[in-house]
Amino acid sequence: MISFLPTVPALHDPALEAALGHAIDNKTKPLGALGRLEALALQLGLVLGERMPRLREPQLLVFAADHGVAARGVSAYPSDVTWQMVHNFLGGGAAASVLARQHGLALTVVDVGVAHDFAAQPGLLQAKVAPATADMTQGPAMTEQQCRAALQVGRSAVADRPGNVVLLGEMGIGNSSAAALLAARLTGLPLAACVGRGTGLDDAGLERKLSVLQQAADRHADATDALDLLARLGGLEIAAIAGAALQAAAERRVIVVDGYICSAAVAVAAALSPAVLQRCVFAHASAEPGHRALLAHLGAEPLLDLGLRLGEGSGAALAWPLLESATRVLAEMASFESAQVSRETAT
Amino acid sequence: MISFLPTVPALHDPALEAALGHAIDNKTKPLGALGRLEALALQLGLVLGERMPRLREPQLLVFAADHGVAARGVSAYPSDVTWQMVHNFLGGGAAASVLARQHGLALTVVDVGVAHDFAAQPGLLQAKVAPATADMTQGPAMTEQQCRAALQVGRSAVADRPGNVVLLGEMGIGNSSAAALLAARLTGLPLAACVGRGTGLDDAGLERKLSVLQQAADRHADATDALDLLARLGGLEIAAIAGAALQAAAERRVIVVDGYICSAAVAVAAALSPAVLQRCVFAHASAEPGHRALLAHLGAEPLLDLGLRLGEGSGAALAWPLLESATRVLAEMASFESAQVSRETAT
Does residue B178 contact residue B233 with C-beta atoms inside 8 Å? Predict the structure, then answer.
C-alpha cells in the first residue's frame, strides 16, 4: 500500500456471517425470497461488524471540480455549469438536493477544483486544490502533488464527518471523459466501449469526444500503476472520491457508489486496495455504456437499473431506501418462532 | 364492459402531457438524465390529472385467501401459513408490515377467503367470500357468484379508503399456481414457461406442480373470456385484486402492482378494461420465471429487479420511494431559468 494512503484490511468474520445468515433465514419468508435485499442485509452487517446493523447519519458527499479537457468540446455543456450547479446543490434545487431532503441525507458539496470563487456558506466544503485539471491531451491532468492533495481532500471530507455510511457523488463538466479513460485502462476494454454521450452529446459530438480521448489515451499509454493513471487521466473530484472511498473503507463505513464517474474513482481505489470493494454498495447501472463493463470488471451488482445518467449522487440517493429496508428487515421482521408461522414441509 | 364492473376510460390529455413534459425537460439536468424517473413523473401526472402530482395517503392492500389446489402439494408450505401470515401482517412482523412502516403506507389486510376465523382487529378487513377456492383440477376454483363477490370485495376495499394511490399485494399459499394458469392462458405461452418454484419447491416439487397444473389447464381449456378464466383458474384474492385495480383505475388512482400474482390479477383486469394499464406502475420483476413473460405481454417495464419472490406487496412497498422521488423532482427541482444554470451548447 502507498504510504500516504490508509490500509484497508479484508473483512473476514465467519461467526458474524453465520449469525447474520441465520437471522435472515429465520425471518418469516421463504428462504431467499427477499432476493438482493438479503445479500444487502448481510453485507451491511459485515461491513459495520454488527448483527443488527444500523445506518447512522448518512453523508452524501458531492465532489465538484472542473476539467481542462472540457475546452476540447467533449461535453454538451459549458464548464460554467459546474459552479452554477454547485450553487444549485446548495440552494436546494438540484436533483441531489431534492433526493437528499427526501431521505434525510446530510449533503455536503466539496469544491476540490471548481473554476470559480465561492463565498463561504453552509454545506460547502472549500478545499480547492487547483481551479481545474490541465488538458490531459496535452500533458497529465494533475501533477503528482495535486493528485495526492485531492486524495487527501476526500479522506478528510469523510474523516471529519459523523455517521457510518457515505454516499459518493460528483459534479464536473467533462468528467465522463476522465472516467472513460480510466475505465478503459482498468478494464482493458477498447476506449470506444467506454465512451458515451455524457450529458447528451449527439453523434458528431460523440465522435469528437472519442477522437479527443484517443489522443489522451495515446499520450498516456505508458502510465503504469493506478495512481499514475489517476493523476494523468483523472480529475480532482475523481481523486477525491478515490480518497474518500479509501478512508471510508478504512473506517469501516458503508460506501454507496453512484454512477460511472464514481465507479471509476472506486475502481482506482480498489486497484490500490481491493478490500475497498467489500464495503461498496453499487447503487445503479447508468445509461453510460461503459458503466456496465466497469461494474462487471469490479464484480459489482448494482441495485437499480433506471437509465439514469445524471451523476450528483442522485442514483446513490435513489437507492438509499433499499439499504434502510435491508437493515429494517433484519431488525424488525419476526422469526418463524416468534410469529408462530409453520415452516416449509418436506417436498 | 361487463355491467357490474366500472368503466375505465382511456386517459388522453395532450395539453397536460405537454405541460408535464415541458416541466420535466426544464429541470436542471440534461434532457432525459433521470431516465425512468422522468417517465414515472409524467405517468403520475397524467393518472392524477395534475401538473404537480401529489401522492396522498397511500394504501397498501394485502388480499389474502386460500386455494383448494394447495391440497395437491403445489406449494412448499402448508395452507395454515396463510392465516398465520395474516396474524403476522397485523402484528407488524411480516416484510410487508416492516416496509409499510418504513414508508408510511397504511396497511390493510383483506380476508377474501382465508380458511380461518379471525377476531375483528384494526387493520383487518373481514370480507370472506368462502373459506377457500375449490380445487381447480376437479372443477372451477370459484362459482361465478363467488368470483363476482370477490371482485366486489376488491372494489369496495379501494372505494372505502382515502388517498389517491393503492399498492396491491397478496397472501395465499398456492396462489402462484393460479397465477401461472392465468398467465399461460392470457399470454398464450406454454404452461411450463409460466410455472415456477413459488415459495421454494425443489425439482421434484416443481415437476409435481407442473403436472397438477397441466390437469387444471386441460380441464378448463374451454374457458373463453377473462372473467370465465378468473373464476375457473383464479383465486379469491386474485379476483379481489382485479376488482381493486378496476375500481382504482375508475377513480383515477395510481396503482402500484407487486409481483407475479398481482400482475396476473391486473392482466385479467386489463383484459376486461385495457385502460387500467395506464394507471399501473409495475414495481418489480420477480424471480418467478413467468413474471417477465407476463410483464412483456402487458408492455410493462418494472421499476426494480431485485430477485424478489415474496409477494405480500413487499416489492410494491420497496418501489414506493421511487414514486415519491418522481413527484418531488417535479415539485422541488429548480429550472434552468430559476437556478441560472447555462443550457447545453450547440454541438
Answer: yes
User: Nearest to residue A33, comparing CAs of B89, B307, B98, B259?
Assistant: B307
| Rounded Cα–Cα distance for residues A7 and A10 (Å) | 10
Residues of B in contact with A36 (CB under 8 A): 306-308
Nearest to B185 by CA among B227, B248, B147: B227
pLDDT in tens, A166-192: 999 999 999 999 999 999 999 999 999
Judge whether B75 and B173 are in contact, CB under 8 Å: yes
Residue of chain B nearest A326, judged by CA positions: B99
pLDDT digit string (tens) for A225-251? 999 999 999 999 999 999 999 999 999
B310–A29 CB contact, under 8 Å:
yes
Element (H, E) at B150: helix B144-159
- Look at chain B and count its residues: 347
Give which of B144, B147, B141 is closest to B129, Cα–Cα.
B147
CB atoms within 10 A of CB A64: 30
Who contacts A83 (Cβ-Cβ below 8 Å, separation ≥6)? A114, A115, A116, A118
- CA dist B290 → A33, B24, B191 (Å): 16, 35, 9
How many angstroms separate the CA atoms of B179 and B138, rounded? Answer: 17
Give the chain B residue whose CA is nearest to the CA of A199: B30
Q: How far does the CA of residue B225 sit from the closest CA of chain A (Å)?
A: 33
Min Cα distance B334 → chain A (Å) is 4
Contacts of A103 in chain B (CB under 8 A): 321
* Interchain pair B30, A92: CB under 8 A: no
d(CA A305, CA A282): 11
Q: Which chain B residues are within 8 Å of A114, Cβ to Cβ?
A: none
- Threshold 0.95, pTM exceeds: yes
- Shortest CA gap B329–chain A (Å): 7
Query: Catalytic site residue B312?
Result: yes
